[in-house]
Amino acid sequence: MRVFPFYLLVILLAACSDRPEARFEPVDAKELGIDFENTLAENDTVNILQYEYLYNGGGVGVGDFDRNGLPDLFFSGNLVSSELYLQQLDGNFRKVTGPAGLTTERWCAGVLVGDIDGNGYEDLYLSVLHPGDERPSPNLLFLNQGPQGPDSIPRFQEVAAEAGIADPGFGTQAALLDYDRDGRLDLYVLNNSLENYPRTIAKGTDTLGRGASVDRLYRNITPPNGPLRFEPVDQLRTEGWGLGVGVQDFDRNGYPDLYIGNDFMSNDFLLLNREGTFTDVITDRMPHQSKNTMGVDIADLNNDGYPEIMTVDMLPDDNLRRKTMFPDIPFSQYAQEQRGGYNSQYVRNALQVNNRDGTFSDVALQAGVAATDWSWAPLLADFDNDGLRDIFVSNGYPRDVTDRDFIDYSQQVDMFGTQEARYQAVARALEEVGGVYQQDFIFRNEGDLRFTVTDWLPDDPTYANGAVTVDLDNDGDLDLVTNNINQPVRIYRNRSRELFPDSTHYLSVRLAGPAGNPDGLGATVYLVAGNLRLMAEQQRQRGYLSTLDARLHFGLGARTAIDSVVVEWPGGRRSVLTEVAVDHQITIPVAESMAPAPAAPPFFSAPAVVLTPENLDWLPRHEESGYTDFDRYALRLRDNSHGGPAMAVTRSGRLIFGGAAGQAVSVYDMASGAQVQSLPETEASEATQLLLFDYDGDGDEDLYVGNGSSEFISREEYFPDQLYVNEGDSFVLVTDVLPSLAVPTGAVAAADLEGDGDLDLFVGAREESGRYPLSPVSYVLRNDDGRFIVAEQVDAGMVTGAVWEDLDGDGRPDLATVGEYSSLRIFYNRPDGWVAQPVDPDLSGWWYSLTPNDLDGDGDTDLLAGNLGLNSLYSASPSQPLTVHADDYDGNGAIDPIVTAYLDGKNHPVHPRNTLARQLPSLKRQFPDYATYGTWTEQQMPALSEKGVRLEVREFRSAWFENRGDGTFQVHFLPPSGQTAPIRDAIATTLADGRPALLAVQNDYAIEVLNGRLDAGTGLAITLGAVGEPEVLPDYWSVRGDARSVVRWNDLFLVGFNDGRVAAYR
């Protein structure tokens, strides 16, 4: 480590700090010689009211432009010139912009650094905007001619036009990649044009190349020893308001792919490269994405050898900002966006975990990284050198134009006065609103894709845009540099090596690639150190508007030896180094690589898929009617009208499939695939439960059809269930044997309760008709000589799952139930009557399913209970529960379910202001503006505590309940990988090694649109680990979509999807 002024300044600042152990310490950039400030002085022609991208800021570029071995810094300027600072041997920086020929007079945004012409010196390609001016303002290419003259300053020559890449679009950023694998670096140019219509409106996606915001791909056609030349490639046609670009070979076919982050309504793009041809596959590979995607970064966060994708958006992390940003998001608006060809998008960061099968699942909410406010640059890097990459996010915005009170005021002002008067009034109001002045975030990676917010950065709110990680002082840890608006550059020195030298070992790797790709872009580096496996692909354009250092950084923790470092070069060559020393920088030249490459060692375990999809074209499709609860009930967080499909399989190989409203229950022969029967009596209703049981004692399986769905709340004639007897070749409806129960069925189960040889029933009610979330009445029906009569009325809450099992070993079947806003309840069947007991009141949740099993093989019945999981906006604990308050608060005869949850340590309504006002217009007088509503808590709404029903959720985790043998249970929560989505159904199976297991299906798309659909689940295989805790087996099968049910016939597993086709796995 060099003790230069950079380090000495930190010591002086730390001496005055009240946080002496802060991992990052601020450095006064001006004292180092860096005086850049991206100053934006608003005026009558350049201001946020006339140019919505005024404060999108500038980027940072890291390079060794003078080749002295030290990283230099370049900052792009908007209304000021961009600047280049060369790091000197003493650690200070020297501004050389003018002599270097880099003074800019255009609005420069993205910074690309790389040796584009292959002369050994790093060049600069700057993306240029043209606010308020429709005339072309081409991007700039500055080729580095190397140090010249007595001052040894590198000279640059601007040749974008001559090279054919003076792109005239509304340039945001560009990236280098050898997309056609011809050994020359090509160029992807990201564009984002202003439009003459609001970009928040779902007008439909232009895919014909006519949009002003179509990106461009340029192929490098430079002849041998000839001048640099590019030509446009006519591949990209879909418009996208681009703000972020990431390059990575996702499918490992040797060709670089692209992730493009687009602002506003535009879908992001996941462009897979098949031998030089790009195809956007994001709709098939990602269930949803960020809505206003800004920066993008890509790296392996869980050390499984597959890269994750991080995109950032604008979701605030505090209640006041959320309530002043979101007025109301009607489901009808979301549905219109879907019809317009837009993918599901939500206003929050996305952390797309790689499922190792080509698909991705967003786990940002579960990981704790979804809300970082007005965010720009995500950077995935190992800041504490522990072997796990952490997350940095820059954020801030000088004018909060998303403040709904300001927006409402400006819309009212627009109705009166002259245009100039209206403009001045809005401008004054905007000054009063102020900015989103924010602290940047660093999240520490705790493993298992769990992150915690750190206090590693100083208390230093900024308006930070572009950012880079770089080891400026070459001491072995990554420092941070940000380009800020109307503020000096921020430099934060990382003190990890200084504070924790024994647990922060590292290796820095510089790749020396071939002449046409000197940084080795696209090469993958694997590192093995004991049980640590690390992977990094060399790509430098990362985060937002910025280019990182060419050196790859690997944190090693306390490990002091490296077994091997392997480089997979583009084109198939391989470099292998063994017994590498730690705590220094190594250079790996492609010239010393091997070709053809030897067999690759198993750096990471390959996906061990057991069940694979099987195409059976006869499988039925579930078709929803188009009804949704959200159109009728503004305050509901879940749509209980989308319950099916229910499925069952007979011993003889008949699949029984329960349709939605207007779709009759149908029967299929599994062997032939032929439909053999339809049950017309069920067509008008919606079959949500199917139960096969021997009703008449003749040894075959009869069919109980449970009807539900809140779609028929006002039409109770569609709720009564049906019973069909098995006549061998068909099911025949039996009438006058069931009582008329006008409740939607949430669960049904059969058992012989009296020991008289026939089967009785429990019918669990899903909700009380028209009075959600009040507790409905469920029923125990006694089989009395073939007729069922009500034997017991049961208060089991809003039931979603029920089983009869002898849970306490006394020979009598007991009843276990779960439901929404309830816990696992056991109704013990005693000789003197029923004894109801919740397993634990602190486990009240949004339970979805209940599956009996014997995972521990001890002969008694355990229970798997599927809950919401942890990957949602909602959180709950015994001390900070999520609560629904229900009553007719406005006296109009309808129940109003108001939900509150904790944020910032206080219990606030979860609903946006206008959503609540739609249901309760009278409340608008109590919160006349969004700012007032943003401060409201449960305590300030006395009606919530003075009247009505109060139900709590204290636990959202799914769990396995171990039966201790006496009917009491010990709860074991599933690991984090089992909490990514709700568990909707499960079925028992046996693994190849003989262990019992459960196969579970997941997800719920019927969730209000602020949270968005819960779609990260890909199916689970659950068994017990060596210490008796449940574990989830990775890659066992891949079940994506809104799965609701799973059944088995021989070795074939069938999964039913809501509003989708049944899928088969074998």
From TrEMBL:
Keywords of the record: Signal
Annotated ASPIC/UnbV domain residues: 520-586
Coiled coil: none
InterPro entries according to UniProt: Crtac1, FG-GAP, Integrin_alpha_N, UnbV_ASPIC
ATP-binding as UniProt keyword: no
UniProt keyword annotation of Signal present: yes
Xref: PANTHER family: CARTILAGE ACIDIC PROTEIN 1
Protein name: VCBS repeat protein
Naturally occurring in which organism (per UniProt): Neolewinella xylanilytica
High-level lineage: Bacteria, Pseudomonadati, Bacteroidota, Saprospiria, Saprospirales
